[in-house]
Design goal:
This is Acetylxylan esterase. The protein has about 325 residues and is α/β, with parallel strands linked by helices. It has one domain: Rossmann fold (3-Layer(aba) Sandwich), CATH 3.40.50.1820. It is built from ten helices and nine strands. It has a nine-stranded mixed β-sheet with strand order 1-2-3-5-4-6-7-8-9, sandwiched between helices. Helix 2 crosses helix 3 and helix 3 packs across helix 4.
Length: about 325
């Protein structure tokens, strides 16, 4: 599809109309306090993958509600001192996959931790292995409306909490340097990265690519592509619940997490992206307060964004921070 969103000048000035809840900070402070009542219990089990240049650990840690969450920690094979740490979050429907799918960051001499996304991991890639044991009210198939009846029940409350705990778990390994921790991810992983950037105050940098979960009021009405379309299809059946649904979503809107970002940031967007429209990405980017921020814009790309070209851009960019 050709350009469908705002012009470049309009994007650079765009601000979301998403209303931040008055108790946003209190909600997340209490959520994380409750999660930390459970012992992190991060366990690292070395696995034989047949790979010779890296050492891989099968990781389990306690996320939201103390529920077990999986991940992979990958280190250069001969690591003998704490290394810069890249914590990665994955796209919608995917899981942590298999270790050999994630070799880029360890190949740079960094430690790499990738978090499984609870309840997902059955749509693409090598799969996932983390259940979501929490039930909820009726929802449209997918994850976007699970628990949308109330902020405390919403699916991404659990995911974002898992993500903060994932950073804590990865930092607990003796061969990772907590002071040089970077969060990265694409699409849903980019949205999770923004949330972590707003909830973890001491990251060295963040790099959300074509991020999802931003500017819900605009996204839900601008694109008819899934996953955002799940919201509209839910409200098509549950007439009259738009205001309540948007109120719940406001606690999870990347725009509000972005406003709390305290690390250097490299965003990316694609101007033909109908999955995560560029205006929703610019809404988060423009809200990010740190003066050291940049956004790579891929003019003729859809949701693949910059693909391998943007991976190369991130590799160059991160040299300044880890």
């Amino acid at each position: 599809m050709a350009l469908f969103d705002l012009s470049r000048d309009e994007l650079e000035a765009y601000r979301s109309v998403s209303t931040e809840p008055e108790d946003f900070d209190a909600f997340w402070s209490e959520t994380l306090r409750e999660a930390r009542e459970h012992d992190l219990d991060a366990r690292f089990e070395a696995v034989d993958t047949g790979l010779t240049t890296v050492q891989v650990y099968d990781v389990t840690f306690a996320g939201f509600g103390g529920h077990p969450v999986k991940g992979w920690l990958t280190l250069p094979a001969r690591a003998d001192r704490p290394l810069p740490l890249v914590v990665e979050f994955v796209g919608y429907g995917g899981g942590r996959g298999l270790p050999h799918e994630h070799l880029l960051w360890a190949s740079t001499g960094r430690a790499h931790f990738i978090m499984d996304t609870r309840g997902q991991g059955s749509a693409w890639g090598g799969g996932g292995g983390t259940a979501d044991p929490v039930g909820g009210a009726p929802s449209y198939p997918g994850f976007m409306t699970r628990g949308i009846d109330a902020p405390g029940n919403y699916y991404y409350r659990r995911v974002f909490t898992d993500a903060v705990r994932a950073v804590e778990a990865a930092r607990s390994h003796p061969l990772t340097d907590a002071s040089r921790t970077v969060a990265v991810g694409s699409s849903q992983g980019g949205g999770i990265t923004i949330a972590v950037g707003g909830l973890v105050p001491d990251l060295a940098a963040v790099a959300p690519d074509v991020p999802f979960l931003c500017d819900f009021p605009r996204a839900a009405t601008l694109t008819d592509r899934h996953p955002y379309r799940e919201i509209g299809l839910f409200l098509k059946t549950h007439r009259g619940r738009t205001e309540d649904a948007l109120r719940t979503l406001s606690y999870f809107d990347g725009v509000h997490f972005a406003a709390r970002g305290s690390a250097p940031a490299l965003f990316s967007t694609a101007l033909e992206d109908q999955t995560c429209p560029p205006s929703t990405v610019f809404a988060a980017f423009n809200a990010w307060p740190h003066e050291d921020k940049a956004i790579e814009v891929y003019e003729f790309n859809d949701h693949e964004g910059g693909g391998p070209y943007h991976e190369a851009a991130k590799l160059r960019w991160l040299r300044s921070y880890t």
